[in-house]
Design goal:
- By secondary structure, the protein is an alpha+beta fold.
- Helices cover 30% and strands 20% of the residues.
- It is built from 4 helices and 4 strands, in the order E-E-E-H-E-H-H-H.
- It has helices spanning 36-44, 51-55, 63-67, 78-89, and strands at residues 2-6, 15-20, 26-33, 49-50.
- The longest helix is centred in the last third of the chain and has 12 residues, at 78-89.
- It is globular and about 40 Å long.
Length: 103
C-alpha cells in the first residue's frame, strides 16, 4: 500500500491518497480530502483500475483525467498525484517526491 499526501496550494484542501494492489496490475485508490470535487473524482472511477491504462497514457488522457472533469481548477495537482500514487504502488515507477516552488 502506498500513501501520498498532497498539499495542492492556496485552496489549502489537503488530500491523502492511498493506492493498494495485490498483483501490480489492478489497483484501488482511495482519498481523504475536504475537497468535494476530489472526492467526486475518486468516487467516479470504476475500481479496481487497470494500472497500465492509468499510467501508460499521454498526459491529460486516461480514466483519471476523464474523471477529473468535475474539478473546477485546471492546475489542480490531484489527478497527477493519483497517477503517481498508482504507479508507485504497482512498481511502474519509483516513489519519489514531486515539488513545485515559486521563487
Amino acid at each position: 500500500m502506498k500513501t501520498l499526501r498532497v498539499m495542492p496550494g492556496v485552496c489549502g484542501l489537503e488530500t491523502v491518497l492511498t493506492a493498494e494492489s495485490e498483483d501490480g496490475m489492478e489497483v484501488t485508490i482511495k482519498a481523504s480530502s475536504k475537497c468535494g470535487a476530489v472526492c467526486k473524482l475518486i468516487e467516479s472511477l470504476e475500481q479496481p483500475l487497470d494500472a497500465y491504462e492509468v499510467c501508460f497514457v499521454k498526459p491529460g488522457e486516461g480514466p483519471v483525467y476523464e474523471a477529473a472533469c468535475c474539478l473546477s481548477h485546471g492546475a489542480c495537482p490531484i489527478p497527477s498525484a493519483v497517477i503517481k500514487c498508482i504507479e508507485a504502488e504497482c512498481k511502474l515507477a519509483l516513489p519519489a517526491d514531486v515539488t513545485m516552488k515559486f521563487e
